[in-house]
Amino acid sequence: MHRPALSVVIPCYNEAECLEVLHARVSAAARAAVGEDHEIVLVNDGSRDASWAVMQRLAAADPRLVAVNLSRNHGHQLALTAGLDLCSGAQILIIDADLQDPPELLADMRAVMTAEGADVVYAVRRRREGETFFKKLTAAAFYRFLDRVTDTPIPLDTGDFRLMSRRALDALLSLPEQARFIRGMVAWVGFRQVPFLYDRHERHAGETKYPLSKMLRFAFDAVTGFSTAPLRWASHIGIALFFLSFLLLIYIAIGFFTGSAVQGWTSLMLITVFLGAVQMLVLGMIGEYLGRLYVESKRRPLYLVADVAGPVQGRATLGY
Ligand code: UDP
Ligand code: MG
């Protein structure tokens, strides 16, 4: 099997308008970095637009391009996993399809990798252009929250845009979980990882494929995948409530003996409702982990491939 010097892996969901410019810019950047010895892996994550047709056309014209068509929309992290499974390069660049992350930074990232002897060069967003205030605020809050609750130090303000060595990628691919938070999993893998600061641009075309619902799912997977702190909070809340109710008991007992017994229906209701709410919250937290266990225990393949256009040299095409 020939191992190209570089693989560029790109998950795409409804990105038809971006693909041609993306292909041109990524090709040029890869060529400038390693010459002809590279491959570009485009993964079509069940797009509803013309993405797959455009990919097939591009693959027919460029022997360095492999296009993979998943059987349906499996989500960003799984589409990315499909591309990573399939690629065969000695170095791997992960990049989004919307050109928010400039492919031209590849040369500098490779230079950092060589200079630092690193296995992973992860791009840290210094600025984010063309994104809503809400997105920036929630993203900033999310990364800081995650940093507090996880045991694995996951770099702040870092997306999936990164350059990896083959051994770091193979280590990443050996993690079998279904609910994947890839930037966290890469951090967990270890080796020498160095940051690379850059300014994030606006989308080339189209709009974000991460609506609030997907962002929330993503955040839940990140927290539950890398931390059991919420389960600990559940028991902390329980202990705190136990002491509170003990104090309450004393208060009631004093009332009983001094004759000023409480007839307070309101306070009773308040406590009942409050306790009910806390119980639901704690149950919900436990449920998140239980659900995760259930999903993992099914051991389904991570994704299914429907078609491939172009030469495939990498691993099997059916996921795990
Ligand atoms: N994406 C995907 N499947 C999805 C959603 C997104 O493959 O279900 C891809 C998308 O095409 C893009 C990348 O994941 O290449 C990041 O998505 P997007 O740019 O919409 O996210 P944002 O930059 O707004 O966080
Ligand atoms: Mg984007």
UniProtKB/TrEMBL annotation:
What family does the database annotate? Belongs to the glycosyltransferase 2 family. GtrB subfamily.
Supply the InterPro entries for this chain.
Glyco_trans_2-like, Glycosyltransferase_2, Nucleotide-diphossugar_trans
Q: Mind listing the GO molecular function terms for this protein? A: glycosyltransferase activity
**Compartmental location:** Cell membrane
Q: Which organism is it from?
A: Sphingomonas spermidinifaciens
- In what way does this protein cross or attach to the membrane? Multi-pass membrane protein
- Give the chief site where it resides: membrane
GO CC terms in record: plasma membrane
TM region positions:
239-262, 268-290
Question: This protein is called what?
Answer: Glycosyltransferase
Q: Where is the Glycosyltransferase 2-like domain?
A: 7-172
Q: List, alphabetically, the CDD domains matched.
A: DPM1_like_bac (cd04187)
- Alphabetically list the UniProt keywords: Cell membrane, Glycosyltransferase, Membrane, Transferase, Transmembrane, Transmembrane helix
Identify the Pfam families for this entry: Glycos_transf_2
